[in-house]
Amino acid sequence: MVDAGTGQPAGKNSAVVAAAAALGLRLTTEFANCQVEIDTSVHTSAAELRDDLTEQRTLAARAAASLGTRLLPVGVPPVGRLPFTLTDSSRFEWITESFGSLTYGQVICGAHVHVGMPDRETALQVGNYVRLWLPSLLALTANSPIYGGFDTGYASWRAVQQTGWPVSGPPPYFRSLEHFDELTAVLHETGAVLDERMLYWDIRPSSHLPTIEVRVSDVPATVEESVTLATVIRALAITALAELDAGRTAPEVGTETLVAAKWKAAHDGVTGQGYDVVAGTLTSAQEALGSLVDWVAPALEDLGELANVRQSVQRILTEGNGAVHQRRKLRSGGGLRDLIADLAVPVALAGSV
Questions:
Q1: pLDDT band at residue 349, thresholds of 50, 70 and 90?
Q2: Rounded CA gap, 294 and 301, in Å?
Q3: Which CATH class is domain 110-343?
Q4: Are the CB atoms for 269 and 146 separated by under 8 Å?
Q5: Helix (H, G, I), strand (E, B), or coil: what is residue 136?
Q6: How far is CA 246 from the centre of its chain?
Q7: CB 344 within 8 A of CB 70
Q8: Which of 51, 83, 103, 339 pairs with 297 at a CA distance of 20 to 30 A?
Q9: pLDDT tens digits, one per residue of 165-200
Q10: Residue 248 DSSP SS3
Q11: What's the pTM?
């Protein structure tokens, strides 16, 4: 949230949560007091998710506007300087006491997509497949090039900021649930995490839901990009489950390779190059995304979403994602104020009067 007049981050998340509740919307506060979180219901179709997310974004923007702020769906605040003020919360105070100044740069907003899993062992094995495509998922949704009023040179500065945490980025290849539990115990014992909720890997089994949680993406700029992201992730999970049912486990690609590929995706987004971690070759971001859609095409076909996803991905490649649009707007000469006005979520549903 930013001030409607100055564009500076607005520390009003508790008040906006209360205003949203009066509109029938449940928001939650986040790490910094200029952040709020939307939480959709569980859905089995892209159409349901689209309607839910559209309504929630609109009501959240309306609640923010009632307090003189604008709601920006971005990975990092385009303006503002460290340190940001954190939300008054016993948990956040605990984290700050443990990790010090590291916490003040973590004003980052991501899209977390959950897919139901039968058990944690299966979730980890599915994750071994999905981790191969994390760089492409980030490139597709990159939406944080502007930070502190300047172009960072990265399509996703959020992805760079997040690396400050001891546990973040692509997870290891997990051989078993025991392997996961043993590593988690070491991380907890050393203080690298305070609890399982601080396993900030890009994909992980949820600590409180029977799901696998994919966390690699910036908050997408639009509802349509968000729906495309969720649909592709669902198709990835379905495809991985089919591979496991056929007795085929994921190829074991080293974490360092994935870290390098993710860095490339964070830097280039959809306009540059990508790295095929399985083939071990540098390719274009467009080809990498094409390979992703091709791999999950049978699952997308079964969901009735193949044509929609192909069309959406092609539109992003042709017209640009959030990172491309932010840079284009900033370079158009209107300055940061015009950029922020352009980013703000509308307070009325499209077509409403």
A1: low
A2: 11
A3: alpha beta
A4: no
A5: helix
A6: 30
A7: yes
A8: 51
A9: 999 999 999 999 999 999 999 999 999 999 999 999
A10: coil
A11: 0.95
